[in-house]
Amino acid sequence: MANITINIPNAHVARVLAAVKGLFPIPLDENGDPTHTNAEWGKKIIEDYLRSIVKRYEQRDAMDVAKAAVSVPDEVVGDE
After folding, report:
1. For 5-62, what is each residue's pLDDT tens digit?
2. Residue 34 phi, psi dihedral angles, 5° rounding
3. pTM
4. Strand partners, 23
5. Measured between alpha carbons, how far is residue 62 from residues 8, 14, 40, 53 in Å?
6. Angle at 79 between CA 73 and CA 80, to 5 degrees
């Protein structure tokens, strides 16, 4: 497995984690306590985001391949 390291300057860590938690609140357990630390949650959200980008790209790429494989006669499309 490859590792990707993201370096966030110390002066910006609180700002980044606040933004992540603001957009994606940390879930709470049955006692109302957070299920993750701030750092764990930030890492999870970033990992999920990267996975979603890869999935979107692969879906778009598959659509482009499928569209290229389909031939539509000019008379169906018409002149524009």
Report:
1. 889 999 999 999 999 999 999 999 999 999 999 999 999 999 999 999 999 999 998 8
2. -60, 140
3. 0.69
4. none
5. 34, 39, 33, 14
6. 130
